[in-house]
Amino acid sequence: MSRRLLLVNGPNLNLLGTREPEIYGADTLADVEALVERTAAAFGLEVRAVQSNHEGSLIDAIHAAREDCAAIVINPAAFTHTSVALRDALSGVGLPIAEVHISNVHAREEFRHRSFVSDIASCVIVGCGVQGYEFAVRRLAALLSD
Ligand code: DQA
Prior knowledge:
Elements: E1 4-9, H1 21-24, H2 29-41, E2 46-51, H3 55-68, E3 71-75, H4 84-93, E4 97-101, E5 123-126, H5 131-145
Parallel strand pairs: 1-2, 1-3, 3-4, 4-5
Helix pairs in contact: 2-5, 3-4
Bound molecules: 1,3,4-trihydroxy-5-OXO-cyclohexanecarboxylic acid.
């Protein structure tokens, strides 16, 4: 079995660190990717990190994971609340999924309360800041070792 995780960050997450820091904190996307790589390495897992502002690019990356990844950590960002296509890609590849949101989406606008991903995810982590990505890796590593 593959020992690689796919880390997917959706639109606007390339701006982490400068984008609404009162909501998303001061860590950058590079910090998040380093955190995920460090955490995964402790479990003998590699990481392929992808960020895109384009729905189709995210879908292509998810399809490619079928070839050589064991699980997916994804923060679909705004596409969480809008994209049936992203949901279908995730359910289509059939890998375990950890859905992460840095902010507590349930304490924000109503339109952020609905996720097209949560009911097909193995776990959902919201409102833990970027530490949520670490929790996601730990959970997937545990699932993969079962
Ligand atoms: C987010 C929450 C989404 O509602 C928002 O569109 C994002 C980031 C989060 O990590 O808290 O871009 O997924």
